[in-house]
Amino acid sequence: MYKKFAVLLDKSNKTAYQVSKDTGIAQSIFSEWKSGRIKTLGVDKLNILANYFGVTIEYFLE
Fold it and tell me: Class of 2-61 per CATH?
């Protein structure tokens, strides 16, 4: 699931730090997600990211 987030970062020329600042999702969440310590984000955070990038939540779950 993080790979899809990484694709969106690349397409939008954003960093996880920028997304963190813009969305209020802690930078540490993205770091843990990337490293695999957490497999998925909660629906609330996925909804924030989906709205931020203009995709659906299903994009992350497919």
Answer: mainly alpha
